[in-house]
From TrEMBL:
The lineage of its organism: Eukaryota, Viridiplantae, Streptophyta, Embryophyta, Tracheophyta. Belongs to the adenylate kinase family. One of its GO terms (molecular function) is AMP kinase activity. PANTHER family: NUCLEOTIDE KINASE. The keyword Transferase applies. This is adenylate kinase. InterPro entries: Adenylat/UMP-CMP_kin (IPR000850), P-loop_NTPase (IPR027417).
């Protein structure tokens, strides 16, 4: 499912992404985790996992800066 959706350029359903994150967090054995770029799925993550973040950090930048960063990924 994940490979197919990625090949088709589709975004994974929040539920799938959250399950993967939760599994990775549990398997890490760490007490704390840092999740980057998950703002839009935060409410779903909290509802599904019953985990409330102790700290949330937002960085705001212009649309021009976001586009520049996106286009320069993997280079």
């Amino acid at each position: 499912l994940i490979q197919t959706m990625i090949k088709e350029g589709k975004i994974l359903p929040s539920e799938v992404t959250i399950k993967l994150l939760q599994k990775a967090m549990q398997e890490s054995g760490n007490e704390k985790s840092l999740i980057d770029g998950f703002t839009h799925n935060r409410a779903a993550f909290e509802a599904f996992t019953k985990i409330k973040p102790k700290f949330v950090l937002f960085f705001y930048c212009s649309e021009e800066e976001m586009e520049k960063r996106l286009l320069n990924r993997n280079q």
